[in-house]
């Protein structure tokens, strides 16, 4: 829903560098009179400033929204709002400190501006503010990113879509590369003959400049209309001069070393494709995978060796050994790919181990060249559920079997995968994970990933530096160097005055002297950016004390250099008529901590999540709705149980947190109804590690800590801290609960008219943070913290002409489902809104793990 007032959207994302997507909309007298993106790139390190200016031309206050989608690899460094000459800056704090402010804001019924994942490569920053009549506001957001080289060029991809005419619209890019710029180009899909001359491009020696500044007349789609022609992609690409394989730059005690040798003989590859062919891959997914594999076979070189492993309930191989990519063998492989079909369960462990065994045998028997790169590319759309299904056991077995010899790339198809598991396993084996999005371009996504890793030029690359001269070195050893890419290493000198460095890769470099082109301490910030990025990556696979140390190092650098990372938050003080309001901006990561879960049990249940995960709702029946944004659809099911039954909602054996809910019914049974209404009338929240239990009913709140018991009512206003627990009760509204290092909850009191003949008061539960819950979290609700995917087949008429039936493939199960509607009470608490969804019968059987009675427990704790 569009908010009333003016809405400003500026989207910015990374392809190989970054892009900005401008989406502006003027409503009710608000005028956006200026929109500028200013990018300054020095030695691949981009400092970007987005500035938006607006004025309220109306005679009443209006709300302005500033939305920016940033590259997931970028770090926000600054944000400010200036209203009538007064600036309100953002400040960066440690996440736990900012979280307390967020919880207080939520407990007061306020919303929060968050950075959240919102696209394939993006995350959204949003903030809004009320502007008085005739007032002006300026939003300014800064972020930084190291541009990565792929296919021989650095690229900035700028999506332009203002949806309106903007008086002062400008994109300006300044590039400074000490090595010199060899090529610079800019193009736009929307560029007409009239707009062609508005792109200004110059480069000479070390400097390049791009500007795009169309006038109002040039922005018009036609001479007499107000529709903007600016709608499409604007792309800037460049590369640098390379007289030697590497380039080293030194500024103020820090150095950065770029290594990109050219004209190397290409290595042959030994590639094992390990493909999931379980039942959940049936339909479009398997057809797109086959399409991608056929195109990849066209690109495999004759010196390469390859094989296909298919896994579902069983394991099958194309050949028993690696096969050379001769024209005859490639033709045979194409026939094999065309006949691949999908069925059965998901034996992921068996597929990977078979692929590793084939690579091991090929090397032991000298079937492949000694100077060659061995790669495993695994694609799955689900989670292991046959054979070895414990993900920790699979990780250990795969790491032991590979033993550092091969690179593993894991591709997660859709949202049903355990992405954290795939990412850890890939990183432990010198590879990376990539999410593949189910869409019309899925085959292109798969082929594009293969293109990135299909041309290794060097293996086991190590750049060595004098140990007595260097401290705080970023990663300096790499499994592969790929054609058209670049290796970047940064570090700090022990002697800050040192201005040269000997590297065993190539020669010696002098200090970089052209200070006028440096924004701040650019090499120091580049070093900090790269160090934080790599610490966070190492943190994914670390445990115990090692993980704590990596977290502490990354947090310290994030705070020192003012980066919004997954460990920090930006607090924005928003001016309001009734006092200032705190807003929080968080940096998400892939996996369970990517979003803030909001659970509302009773009249409404909702979950605010990323587009890669599911949104959940439960109303008072209770019925459940799981929104799956990437499908633009939803799944729903009912739980039909009697009052007095207790359901396990969340159970995390790692943090010790459990949440159970007891059902209550109407005041008197409805004799005409086959199934009686039920609600959650009592919640039990416990943390066994803290020995704390919280019992909440619509009448009272009771805390048990060991033998101590403390009670409150909803008429109290309380702030309590004891034994690792923080409790805030807001009178007759809600309570906020934090339990040690675990998740935080808000319990909301829903009150009905006391003289209502049927209904009675009930409770809602919000989980503010899910990143403190482990990946082993389960329960009737906890299982859906992980993403879910499904496929609909064979839609046909059902028993009700208005509600067709279909076959749903979900969690490797085939279910008969019915198209219907369920109520979402968020927007209309009285009547609700009908949400179309695929209804899963029999208490969610086949969708939930096990059956619904598995979640019935004997007591609240």
Task: Output the keywords.
about 850 residues, alpha+beta, ten-stranded mixed beta sheet, globular, disordered N terminus
Structure description:
This protein has 861 residues and is α+β, with helices and mostly antiparallel strands. Helices cover 16% and strands 42% of the residues. The protein is built from 12 helices and 52 strands. A 10-stranded mixed beta sheet has the order 14-15-12-3-4-10-6-7-32-33. Strands 19, 20, 21, 22, 23, 24 and 25 form a 7-stranded mixed beta sheet that branches. Helix 7 (391-402) packs parallel to helix 8 (419-428) and helix 10 runs antiparallel to helix 11 (544-560). The longest helix is centred in the middle third of the chain and has 20 residues, at 522-541. The protein starts with 5 loop residues before the first strand and ends with a strand. The relative contact order is 0.10. Mean pLDDT is 79; it is low at 1-27, 109-118, 506-511, 591-616 and 825-829. GO terms for molecular function: serine-type endopeptidase inhibitor activity. It is found in: Secreted. InterPro entries: ITI_HC_C, ITIH, VIT, VWF_A, vWFA_dom_sf.
> Rg, please?
29 Å
Instruction: Give the rounded overall mean pLDDT.
Output: 79
How much of the sequence lies in strands comes to 35-45%
Give a short account of the largest sheet: 10 strands, mixed
What is the 3D form?
Answer: globular
Helix content: 10-25%
Low-pLDDT runs of 5+ residues are: 1-27, 109-118, 506-511, 591-616, 825-829
From the helix content, strand content and strand pairing, which structural class follows?
A: alpha+beta
Distance between the termini: 40 Å
- Give the helix tally: 12
Strand order of the largest sheet: 14-15-12-3-4-10-6-7-32-33
Number of strands: 52
Pfam families: ITI_HC_C, VIT, VWA
Protein name: Inter-alpha-trypsin inhibitor heavy chain H3
Main location: secreted
Subcellular location: Secreted
